[in-house]
Amino acid sequence: MPESPTNLQAALSAFMDEHVYPAERHYRAHTESAADRWSIPPIMESLKSRAREAGLWNLWRPRDLGGRLSNREYAPLAEIMGRSLIGPEVFNCNAPDTGNMEVLLKYGTQAQKAQWLEPLFEGSIRSAFCMTEPDVASSDATNVRCSIQRDGDNYVVNGRKWWSTGAPDPRCKILIVMGKTDPEAARHTQQSMILVPVDADGVRIVRPLQVFGSDDAPHGHAEIVFDQVRVPADNLLLGEGRGFEIAQGRLGPGRIHHCMRLIGCAQRALEMMCQRTSSRTAFGRPLSEQGTVRADIANSWCEINQARLLTLQAAEHIDELGAKGARDLIAAIKIVAPTMAQTVIDRSIQAHGAMGVSQDTFLAEAFAYARTIRLADGPDEVHRVSLAKHVLGLYTQ
Predict the structure, then answer these.
(1) What are the residues whose beta carbons fall under 8 Å from the beta carbon of 199, sequence distance 6 or more?
(2) Please, what's the b/e burial string for 267-305 (b: 16 or more CB within 10 A of its CB; e: otherwise)?
(3) Is residue 2 scored above 60 in pLDDT?
(4) Final residue before a domain boundary, out of 241, 272, 301
(5) Radius of gyration (Cα) for the chain, nearest Å?
(6) Can you spell out the DSSP letters for 217-229?
(7) Tally of domains within the chain
(8) What does the alpha-carbon distance between residue 120 and residue 244 come to, in Å, rounded to a whole number?
(9) pLDDT digit string (tens) for 167-204?
(10) Are 158 and 229 spatial neighbours (Cβ–Cβ below 8 Å)?
(11) Which terminal residue of the chain has fewer beta carbons within 10 Å of its beta carbon, N or C?
């Protein structure tokens, strides 16, 4: 079993080369079959089994929560996994499960951990996080209208959520739902989070939502109705009025996990751009000798490395100061990395011509992923406001 972070990087890279990249075509072929779109490609479970045997499992779990690595040590590994859109799941390092596992690790009771955390650690089930709502600006979490009301030994959940990533997955068994337990309380103590089994009476998945025309099967993003859903009071996380606190804790490391993976996407897109332009000739010379193409390659290389260094700095600050102490750098990298990846992937698409927007490369899906992350875990604007407030405090006091 690999021991040091350096050995883990080498082992992970070798595993990606030998198993994950070759499997992408089979995975895509399975999900393109109309009869099989919402079933799990068998090759995924085979890959997961091999990853566990290789000791490349749950690498996301930080050392302060019982894991093997710091956030700084994990960052290069997440980048390697992020080079493939199926990569993170192979190693049980995929969103939203890592964030939900972190919530259960930090805030779950022993009973909640036994029932839900252990199978998530094993990779035998999946989960979803239900916060965003169609009727309010959910970038402000205090806007949520979903109701969580105490009734004896139970809570009753009513509301509508959407963009609950992973909920349509047939292996999804548990939802973490954010709603209001006390609308009359102080603004940031009205909300609570509760564990709701997918098969609870009154939970109805209305539809999978499409991202740029793709339903992202077999995982997807669901619109869900909660209609008089009754769950035991013991399913509440941490306590009434603690939902906003949990949300802030969850979105620290999880936010930069996306950034780490997007750097891997961008790096692969750059390599593909170099290979493509060196192998294609137009107007009498290779595309790679065209001035505009060379400018795109040079700018992409600089931008990727700038984002990588900022991500590593953010990870170090989380290790040293916690997510709250690193909030300025978390906001900065969340602003920088998705836009950088979107730009680099777009250049690679342009270099590939029509092939770049087809299913024959990973570029179109990667572009959609990068663009979507500019909205997920807080839109760019929210992070800019937060960062600017911090910077103003530094230089005007």
Answers:
(1) 173
(2) bbbbebbbebbeeeeeeeeebbeeeebeebbeebeebbe
(3) no
(4) 241
(5) 21
(6) TTT-EEEEEEEEE
(7) 3
(8) 23
(9) 999 999 999 999 999 999 999 999 999 999 999 999 99
(10) yes
(11) C
